[in-house]
Automatic annotation (TrEMBL):
ABM domain ranges (all copies): 66-160
Keywords: Monooxygenase, Oxidoreductase
Its EC number(s): 1.14.-.-
Organism: Oceanobacillus longus
Family annotation (PANTHER family): SIGNAL TRANSDUCTION PROTEIN TRAP (PTHR34474:SF2)
InterPro entries: ABM_dom, Dimeric_a/b-barrel, Heme-degrading_MO
GO MF: monooxygenase activity
Pfam families (alphabetical): ABM (PF03992)
Protein's UniProt name: Antibiotic biosynthesis monooxygenase family protein
EC class: oxidoreductase
Length: 165
């Protein structure tokens, strides 16, 4: 399955959503503006967006919640090891209060993977970061940048867009 993402103003992204009612488009607000995301195996909707292969998934992405995308640039030679680490991780995040969905997205063009998680609230995500499960899941990460990272990873946080009434 593939996933597609693009950025733009919410007004622009809402027009795309209105023109494509058959696509389950998820609109999000971030500090940088709007983000649209959808999963589909055979239809490209965005003329200038990012395409990913969904290589791991848990849960269903809901229309409400808090989204955290960890953007991780990985060198070509390190991709197999990076993916192996995720595929063999403990799945304790799924047991956390407020967890809704997880996706590991492999980029089709560039080298920046996206670790996509959705939470009921930002508070639920913060609780995960402070939990023993988080410490256990990240215990083998060193303080310095791992060799397979080409650049520093960065977080994008969003809230799911809700139409104001």
């Amino acid at each position: 399955m593939n996933a597609y993402m693009t950025n733009g103003t919410i007004d622009f992204l809402k027009k795309i959503e209105q023109k494509n009612p058959d696509i389950n488009l998820h609109l999000m607000n971030s500090s940088e503006g709007g983000i649209a995301y959808y999963e589909n195996s055979n239809r490209k909707l965005f003329s200038s967006g990012r395409e990913y292969e969904v290589i791991m998934q848990t849960g269903e992405i809901l229309k409400e919640g808090f989204v955290v995308m960890n953007n991780i640039p990985v060198s070509d030679e390190s991709k197999p090891g990076f993916e192996h680490r995720f595929k063999n991780r403990s799945n304790t995040v799924e047991d956390m209060t407020g967890f809704q969905a997880f996706r590991l997205l492999r980029p089709s063009i560039n080298n920046t993977y996206v670790v996509f998680t959705q939470w009921h609230t930002a508070h639920d995500f913060e609780n995960w970061k402070e939990s023993d499960q988080f410490k256990e899941a990240h215990k083998n990460q060193s303080a310095k940048k791992p060799a397979h990272f080409m650049e520093q990873p960065f977080l994008t946080t969003c809230t799911m867009y809700k139409e104001e009434e």
